[in-house]
Amino acid sequence: MKATAKAHTNIALIKYWGKRDQALILPTNNSLSLTLDGFYTTTTVDFHDALTQDVFMLNGQAVTGEAYQRVTKFLDLIRNLSGKTDLYANIGSINEVPTAAGFASSASGFAALAAAGAKAIGLNLSDPELSRLTRQGSGSACRSIYGGFAEWEMGEKEDGTDSYAVPIAPREYWDIRVAAVVLSSTMKKVSSRAGMKRTVETSPFYSGWIDSIPNDLNGIKVGIQEKDFEKVGAISEANCLKMHATTLGANPPFTYWHDTTLRVMHTVQEMRANGIPAYFTIDAGPNVKVLYLPEDEARVEETLRNIAGVTDVRLSKAGPGITYL
Ligand code: ADP
Ligand code: DP6
Ligand code: CO
């Protein structure tokens, strides 16, 4: 009863930022992402009847506390679905992505865990079923079931059965590149989960965020369909800025940005002024992702590497969905 799965992170172009149900992880808005080939997690789940509790090793170290609880609670869902509630597992996971630094480790981490766990226990899930299950580990993870562009449909039902991701376009459809600009790989002070909760509960800007989603979502889908890079980039950048603006209105207020984050943002806008179509987006963390086209790769990389405070630039293409090893 053992399986290994590999899942890639995804970068949200239209952000998921807020839950209407914390326990089931039901979002307040649809979101849309691009899966990345450069960052991923590989997880092995091995169910044993000799074990009396789950054991979770991340990057070779035993995990306890909140991160452990999130994993065992998630395996409970898998145990309940399969009816094998008395089985515990050894879980070994390797993150080829910084953990909890705003590079979406929870997305690749829970997508790999869901796929490996479901397979190991003998569940035979369709992609929508796997996405729906994965959602309950980390919301952004439900989009990492698919390669390329994916949209998480928020759904309407209270039980969450209609809340899962669907594929929008496969990775081969369009060669868009993403530079991950690394300035800090340390764990963020406010997790995505805590940050969005505080924002929903206290930020007066939150309703404006929600009101702006339908337009952004319709626009970006047209942009993807027409392969209109400027349109996709401009909408992504604006959507990211609106999401981060909501955190400044929260109580207590917070921001994920560092000084170098702002420097990278300005440099990207300068590149555009100099005729290179490049656009930024930022998840819940200080690091910046820059969207660009293959023909501009060398100039974009060089420009980003030269920014004071930038420690690394990692280039990604569109990535694949779940694979089993
Ligand atoms: P990130 O920006 O990295 O997604 P989050 O705050 O959303 O940051 O989530 C980080 C949390 O995700 C970690 O503290 C841990 O609980 C969980 N996580 C990260 N990687 C894995 C993994 N490989 N397997 C299981 N859980 C993981
Ligand atoms: C800003 O999926 O990490 O990256 O559902 O609580 O695990 P939980 O949160 P998470 O939130 C991601 C927030 C975001 C935007 C996005 O990825 O859509
Ligand atoms: Co996350």
Helix and strand layout, with pairings?
Layout: E1 2-14, E2 19-21, E3 26-27, E4 31-48, E5 55-58, E6 61-62, H1 65-82, E7 88-96, H2 105-120, H3 127-135, E8 149-153, E9 164-169, E10 177-182, H4 192-202, H5 206-225, H6 229-248, H7 259-273, E11 279-281, E12 288-292, H8 297-305, E13 312-316, E14 323-324
Parallel strand pairs: 5-7
Antiparallel strand pairs: 1-4, 1-14, 2-3, 4-7, 4-8, 5-6, 8-9, 10-12, 10-13, 11-12
This protein binds adenosine-5'-diphosphate, ligand DP6 and cobalt (II) ion.
Keywords: ATP-binding, Lipid biosynthesis, Lipid metabolism, Lyase, Nucleotide-binding
Enzyme class: lyase
EC number: 4.1.1.33
What does this structure look like?
- With 325 residues, this protein is an alpha+beta fold.
- The chain folds into 2 domains: 2-173, Ribosomal Protein S5, domain 2, CATH 3.30.230; 177-316, GHMP kinase, C-terminal domain (Alpha-Beta Plaits), CATH 3.30.70.
- The chain is built from 8 helices and 14 strands.
- Strands 1, 4, 5, 6, 7, 8, 9 and 14 form an 8-stranded mixed sheet that branches. The chain has a 4-stranded antiparallel sheet with strand order 11-12-10-13. A two-stranded antiparallel ribbon has the order 2-3.
- Helix 2 packs across helix 3 and helix 5 runs antiparallel to helix 6.
- The protein is globular.
- The chain starts with a strand and ends with a strand.
- It holds the Pfam family MDD_C.
